[in-house]
Amino acid sequence: MSSTKESQAELTMDYDRLKELKAFDDTKSGVKGLIDAGIVEIPRIFIRPPDELAEELNQGKSTLQVPVVDLSGIEVEDRRQKVVDEIREASEKWGFFQLINHGVPSSVLKEMIDGTRKFHEQDVELKKEYYSRDRTTRRVIYETDLHLFNSKTANWKDALNISMMVTGHIEPEEIPEVCRKEFFEFMNHIRKLGETLLDLLSEALGLKPDHLNAMECTKGQTLVCHYYPACPQPELTLGTDKHTDPDFLTILLQDQSGGLQVMHNNQWVDVEPIERGLVVNIGDFLQILSNRKFISVNHRVVANKVGPRISVVCFFTGVFEPPKMYGPIKELVSEEKPPVYKEFLVSDYITEFFSRPFDKSGLDLNRL
């Protein structure tokens, strides 16, 4: 029997996955709790299926670099056009780009990373107050894996999830005090940057600068503060499984650890951290609105023996309530380029996202 088949047999023998998932979830201590307990082998719920692990060995790894866009000087017409062209190319070919000179002070970035670390490294009993799987009534949730019970493999990370999807607003007292100040400072800057980027993306689509903002694409947001503890067996699991984002636009702040990868030309490409930089990616909703001119691509985070890795992700989700239909922008549709996707409600798309395995994209379900 091959070693892969042997490991498969070991995994299926005497293994009640649901029972182990519930036992882990009931600790409310997350992945960090496992590390604090001194584990040297990762639990089976985190081990990827043998076929995935075998495929990983054969998967090519690219040495290409994700495009870097310098946002400085966009008030000047010639310079702005150059930036719009660079964003268009990156959004069409990669669905990802890194941003420098974006206007968010480096002190704000550093404090947000530190605030995330402080939340996750505080006493576990204080964190447990926020531990929940109830997305309907709770807007601030500490969790370990949002698709824990839907996916084949649990992901090696913990997260603080702050949802402003419905109102675009949240009361200060709802945010954990340990990172409250840092959160509001960061969000003030990231909202403005999101609006600026949507102006530039509108122009890149050949539309008026205010087109996407007029559609309220930045109205709702969710901020997720990730904490990826060091992993004793990183080759067996992932920090975040491959996925596309159910939003218009994502802005990500990562520390200098690395680990984020994007799929490009059927190969994984490392998104190398840039000091004081931010990462931007196109979400599913913008692929739909642009009628597939811009692409929402698979990305993931690999696990690492060294940690923790810390990242903060802002998802711009548009209008959740009252219901608003989004679909391919009429200016981008013609006889030669008929609509590729049907219209959708943000609430329906996101509800569906939480009910399926993380690595299955909703774009296929929305195809005409």
Mean pLDDT: 91
Radius of gyration, whole Å: 20 Å
Given the structure, what is the number of helices? Answer: 11
The proportion of strand residues reads 15-25%
- Anisotropy-based shape: globular
Give the N-terminus to C-terminus distance in angstroms. Answer: 45 Å
Query: Tell me about the biggest sheet?
Result: 8 strands, mixed
Number of strands: 15
Structural class: alpha+beta
Give the ordered list of helices and strands: HHHHEEHEHHEEHHEEEEEEHEEEEH
Q: How helical, in percent, are the residues?
A: 25-40%
Low-confidence stretches: 1-11
Question: What report would you give on this structure?
Answer:
This protein has helices at 3-12, 17-27, 30-36, 50-58, 77-93, 106-121, 124-128, 180-204, 211-214, 284-289, 346-355, and strands at 61-62, 68-70, 96-100, 140-143, 158-164, 221-228, 238-243, 249-254, 260-264, 267-270, 278-282, 299-302, 309-316, 325-326, 344-345. It is of the alpha+beta class. An eight-stranded mixed beta sheet has the order 2-3-11-8-13-6-5-4. The chain has a five-stranded mixed beta sheet with strand order 1-10-9-12-7, with no helix packed on it. The longest helix has 25 residues, at 180-204. One of its GO terms (biological process) is response to molecule of fungal origin. Keywords: Iron, Metal-binding, Oxidoreductase, Vitamin C. Residues 218-318 form the Fe2OG dioxygenase domain. GO terms for molecular function: 2-oxoglutarate-dependent dioxygenase activity; L-ascorbic acid binding; metal ion binding. It comes from Anisodus tanguticus.
